[in-house]
Amino acid sequence: MDPITQEIINSPSIEIINFTIATASGSADSLIMSSSPAGSSASSPTTLSRYENQKRRDWNTFGQYLSNHRPPLALSRCSGAHVLEFLRYLDQFGKTKVHTQLCPFFGHPKPPAPCLCPLRQAWGSLDALVGRLRAAYEENGGKPETNPFGARAVRLYLREVRDSQSKARGISYEKKKRKKPALKPPALPPPS
Q1: Can you give the CATH number for the domain in which 102 is found?
Q2: Where mainly found (predicted)?
Q3: Is residue 180 part of a domain?
Q4: At residue 96, does pLDDT exceed 50?
Q5: 58, 133 in Cβ contact below 8 A?
Q6: Euclidean distance between CA atoms 129 and 112, whole angstroms
Q7: Cα distance between residue 102 and residue 117, in whole Å
Q8: 3-class SS at 18?
Q9: How many domains, the chain?
Q10: Predicted TM-score of the model (pTM)
Q11: Does residue 178 sit within a domain?
Q12: DSSP string, 30-96
């Protein structure tokens, strides 16, 4: 059982109503809980969405990173530089091959052979992570104007990662253009 699930189960302020563990056969995991203390009359149970679960896990991971930081760092003292340090730390757990400029496969989306280039966090994963942490920061009482995840340095870092991975992997990360809704012809007045 992962530590976050264990934390939820052991929490005195959360009553577990329904808990299903995902199996290899593909059954979905669901966690239905209520925030009332166990034993009291429960309000309507809430099912956390996949996004909310991931946001909570990411927030807990970042909190763990801050507490393991030397010296330990309070959230109120956290800056964009600390967020960048966290993102670079996460890079070591990446699964996306990013070719160096010296690699013969630099710029090839599907290289024909393996190479020794490093594995990194994909830009899309980092971008989504920063978005979830930005939302979690404000949900946990942080002010939008002091949100370290929205710092200019973080935005520039993400842009730099996107551009370098785009070149290294030969993949374009163009912003998707929104389709404009089709204009409906004006309604004709009813015949008189």
Answers
A1: 1.10.150
A2: nucleus
A3: no
A4: yes
A5: yes
A6: 31
A7: 9
A8: strand
A9: 1
A10: 0.65
A11: no
A12: EEEEESSPTTSPP-S-EEPPHHHHHHHHHHHHHHHHHHHSSS---GGG--HHHHHHHHHHHGGG--E
